[in-house]
From TrEMBL:
NCBIfam families in the cross-refs: ftsW (TIGR02614)
Name this polypeptide is given: Probable peptidoglycan glycosyltransferase FtsW
Entry GO CC: cell division site; plasma membrane
PANTHER family, per the entry: CELL CYCLE PROTEIN, PEPTIDOGLYCAN GLYCOSYLTRANSFERASE FTSW-RELATED
Stored Pfam families: FTSW_RODA_SPOVE (PF01098)
Chief localisation class: membrane
Pathway: Cell wall biogenesis; peptidoglycan biosynthesis
């Protein structure tokens, strides 16, 4: 056990980290590893690979993911901001390169090869974009003469243009929802809300009109006609699981779900472990969001408040999209379940998000001491 009397970096981290947040993130990673045994062997066998090929790769991805999350949690808010700005600049460059040199998968260019690895820059863009926009919003709130909101709007437009060019409508919707939530927290005027809402609606109409694969997915969702094999099979897996599931390794329908280890891992969990288990999994994600928003509301620093709220919204909205698709409440869209689904880029990127959250929500005694000192002198307000 680490002593409170110690003053080393590890001791300071241990006593200042939000251990409830840390436990939730590690719990989700553990559940994801467990579910990889249920969802991935059938996919590996269809591809002619060893049954536990994806299980081994998932376990390998856990190591850099955990190191990334813990390492970033040591940063100060200023270091988080600087790291995010640098990361965003690098990811924007890579997202441009993806359009020309990226690997085409299912009609989209979202991956770029770096040596023996494949990287999806848009996954790492999300937490960096959120933190950078939080900084821009906070600067405008602190100094109204600084055009932080305008820069955030221009940055949003650039990111959305790159996502649509790939094309990746799911990430576009996710980014728009989180960015809009942060802008609303930053005091967006109602005129802006109406204008941006109209812009988002118009964007969906244009996507439906101009992108055949988008129109196809929406039409299949509304009419139930066409190739609905994947979502129908996922629904069947959930139904067969009932309340308590068929038991570990006893799932049958999961074996024919094409993306059972990634986009439809929730359906696999329902078939083998039951609806009650899935409800508990949803509750964990809800706790992450509620914990983050509660801490954000208590925070006096605008940057920290906007960043923490935006980062937990990213996890919450992404999990809602994934679960909604599995339950046929939303049109089919490839979106991983954070920290659960298989995928190196997705897992490491979500751990970047988690690391930023842990860094920004650490208890900082020196900050509290300053606030109490200012209060005693009649300058500030007492710290909570």
């Amino acid at each position: 056990m680490v002593s409170r009397a110690q003053r080393g970096a590890v001791a300071d981290w241990f006593w200042t980290i939000d251990r409830f947040f840390l436990a939730l993130f590690i719990l989700l990673m553990g559940i994801g590893f467990m579910l990889s045994f249920a969802g991935s062997p059938a996919v590996a066998e269809r591809l002619g690979l060893d049954s536990f090929h994806f299980v081994r790769r998932h376990s390998i991805f856990l190591i850099p993911s955990l190191i990334t999350m813990i390492g970033l949690s040591f940063l100060t808010p200023r270091q988080v901001r600087r790291t995010a700005v640098i990361m965003l600049a690098v990811m924007i460059v890579l997202m441009v390169l993806v359009l020309f040199f990226g690997q085409e998968v299912k009609g989209g260019r979202r991956w770029i090869g770096i040596g023996a690895l494949s990287l999806q820059p848009s996954e790492f863009m999300k937490p960096a974009f959120i933190v950078t926009c939080a900084w821009l919003f906070s600067e405008h709130a602190r100094q109204p003469e600084v055009p932080g909101n305008l820069f955030a709007i221009l940055l949003y437009g650039m990111i959305v243009a790159l996502l649509i060019a790939q094309p990746d409508l799911g990430q576009t919707i996710l980014t728009t929802a989180v960015w809009g939530g942060m802008f609303f927290m930053a005091g967006m005027p109602w005129l802006w809300i109406i204008l941006l809402g109209g812009f988002a609606t118009g964007g969906l109409v244009v996507a439906y009109t101009m992108l055949p694969h988008v129109a196809g997915r929406i039409d299949r969702f509304l009419t139930g006609e066409g190739d609905t094999f994947q979502v129908d099979t996922a629904r069947e897996a959930i139904i067969r699981g009932d309340w308590l599931g068929r038991g570990p390794g006893e799932g049958i329908v999961k074996r024919i779900i094409p993306d059972s280890h990634t986009d439809f891992i929730f359906s696999v969990a329902a078939e083998e472990f039951g609806i009650i288990f899935c409800m508990a999994l949803v509750l964990i994600f809800a706790l992450v969001v509620m914990r983050g928003l509660t801490l954000a509301m208590r925070e006096r620093d605008d940057f920290t408040r906007f960043a923490v709220a935006g980062l937990v919204l990213q996890i919450g909205v992404q999990s809602m999209i994934n679960v909604g698709v599995n339950l046929e409440l939303l049109p089919a869209k490839g979106m991983t379940l954070p920290l659960i689904s298989y995928g190196g880029s997705s897992m490491v990127a979500i751990c970047v998000t988690a690391g930023f959250i842990l860094a920004l929500t650490r208890h900082r005694p020196e900050k509290r001491a300053v606030e109490r000192s200012l209060f005693r002198s009649g300058i500030g307000v007492p710290a909570e």
